[in-house]
Amino acid sequence: MWLRRVLGIILIYVYLIPPRAQLQHVDQPYVVHTTSPKLCVHTRLTDEVEDWKVQYTLQLVREMGATHIVEFFPWAYAQPTPSTYDWRNFDRLFEQSHEQGLKVIARMGLVPAWAQTGIANPTLNTLPVSAYPNFAQFVAEFAERYQTQLAGVIIWNEPNISFEWGYNAVDAVAYVDLLRITYETVKRQSPHIPILLAGLAPTLEPLNSSYGLNDLIYLEQIYEAGGNSYFDGVAVHTYGFTHPPDAPADRMQLNFRRVELLHGIMERFGDGEKPVIITETGWNDDPAWVFSVKPSQRIQYTLQALHMAESWEWLDQMCLWVFRTPAPLNSYQDGFALVSPSFVGDGLYSSLQQHTQGQQTGDTPWLDPPTHGDE
Questions:
Q1: By percentage, how much of the chain surpasses pLDDT 70?
Q2: Which residues contact 132 (CB under 8 A, 6 or more apart)?
Q3: What is the 3-state secondary structure (H, E, C) of the chain?
Q4: Of 12, 26, 75, 6, which Cα lies nearest the Cα of 46?
C-alpha cells in the first residue's frame, strides 16, 4: 500500500508540476526590432532567484520593442566585505541583457553594513561621508567590468527625499560631493562611461521640510554648488498620476511634463545640451490607489507620452516603471507593472508591442464610442 502511495506522489509530481525551464543560449545576440528606439523599461532582476526568469523577462522586454533597461545594482550585494567582490548576480544579468540585444542603464546604491561602522541606527540608504570613496571605487570597478554594455551609470536615487538619504536632512551640497568623488574615480578607469545625475523624486516639499525638497529647487541647488561638472546626463523621475501627458507643466503641479521644467533649469544654467533620460515614469491602474487611472486611460496616456518623448530632441530614453517584479508587492505598486510575476502581460504591454512593431497608428487601441446615429 505504501509503495502505491509513493508512486502516486511521484506521478503527480512528474505530470502536474511543470519542470524548471532551462536557459537557452544563442550564438549571436538578438537585435531589437522597434519603431520607437526611445522606449525603455525599468526592470527589477537583481532580486530574481531563477536564471531562466531573468532570461525570459529580458526576452519579453526585447519582444515588446524596448532597446534599454534600467536596473538597480545594490552595492551591498556585490561587495560583502571591504576587500571582496562577488559579481555573479550582476554577471548573469549583463550576460542575458547582451544576448537579448539590450543596453543597460545602471542605478547604484544600497550601502553594505561594513561601510556604516560607527553609525547609530543606519538604514540601507545611510552613506557616511567617510564611505564616499568606498562607494566611488565600487562604482568604478562596476563600470570597468561592464563597460561594453553600459549606456550610463546613475549615482544614487532620489537624494532629495529624506528616506533615500538615510533619513537625514537632504543636502544638495553633500550629494554634489558624492557625485564629484564618484565621477572622478570612475573617469580615471573608464573615461567614456556616462555618469548620470540621480533621478529626483517629484515632490512639492518646501525648504526646511523634514521629508524632502522640491525637485526643481534641489536641481537648482546642485547647479549652484557646481555639480554640473560632475555628470554627463540627467536621469529624471516624472509620473503622470491622474493627469494626461499633455497637461501643461506647472511648478506647483506634479505631472508628466514636469520633465520640461527640469530641462528648463538645465538650459538656464547653460547645460541644455546634456542628454535627459526619463528613468522612471508611468501611470497606475490599481483602483485602490487614489492617484490611479482606468486601464484604458493608462494605455492611452502611455502611448501619448511616448509620442511626446519621441518629439523631444533633448530626451534620449523614456523608461517605464516597472516592467515586472519577481513577486507580487501586494500594494498599489503592482498597478505599475506591465507583466505579472507569473509572466502574464497586460493590455499596456500588448499595446506598446503593437506600437513598436508598426501595427498601431493611433494613441488609443480601441474603437471610438458610438454616435447617436449608430445606436
A1: 90
A2: 177, 178, 181, 182
A3: CHHHHHHHHHHHHHHHCCCCCCCCCCCCCCCCCCCCCCEEEECCCCCCCCHHHHHHHHHHHHHHCCCEEEEEEEHHHHCCECCECCCHHHHHHHHHHHHCCCEEEEEEECCCHHHHCCCCCCCCCCCCHHHHHHHHHHHHHHHHHCCCCEEEEEECCCCCECHHHCCCCCCHHHHHHHHHHHHHHHHHHCCCCCEEECCCCCCCCCCCCCCECCHHHHHHHHHHCCHHHHCCEEEEECCCCCCCCCCCCCCCCCCCCHHHHHHHHHHHCCCCCCCEEEEECCCCCCCCCCCCCCHHHHHHHHHHHHHHHHHCCCEEEEEEECCCCCCCCCCHHHHHCCECCCCCECHHHHHHHHHHCCCCCCCCCCCCCCCHHHC
A4: 75
Query: Is the CB of residue 111 less than 8 Å from the CB of residue 75?
Result: yes
- Residue 112 near residue 76 (C-beta atoms within 8 A): yes
Q: How far apart are CA 221 and CA 215, in angstroms?
A: 10
Cα 261 → chain centroid: 21
What pLDDT digit, counting tens, does each position of 101-120 carry?
A: 999 999 999 999 999 999 99
Domains of the chain: 29-359 (3.20.20.80)
Quick one: pLDDT at residue 368?
Answer: 46
Choose among 345, 340, 277: nearest CA to 37: 277
Q: 271, 231 in Cβ contact below 8 A?
A: no
d(CA 321, CA 308): 17
pLDDT given at position 21? 64
CA atoms within 13 A on the CB side of 85: 12
Cα–Cα distance between 61 and 96 in angstroms, integer?
Answer: 12
Give the residue among 149, 125, 318 at the shortest CA–CA distance from 236: 318
Kindly state the cell numbers that stand for 180.
564629484
Binned at pLDDT 50, 70 and 90, residue 305 comes out as very high
CB 318, CB 39: distance < 8 Å = yes
Q: Exposed, middle or buried, 190 (CB in 10 Å: 0-12/13-18/19+)?
A: buried
- Tell the residue number behind the cell numbers 485602490, with chain if given: 288
Burial of 28: CB neighbours in 10 Å, binned 0-12, 13-18, 19+: exposed
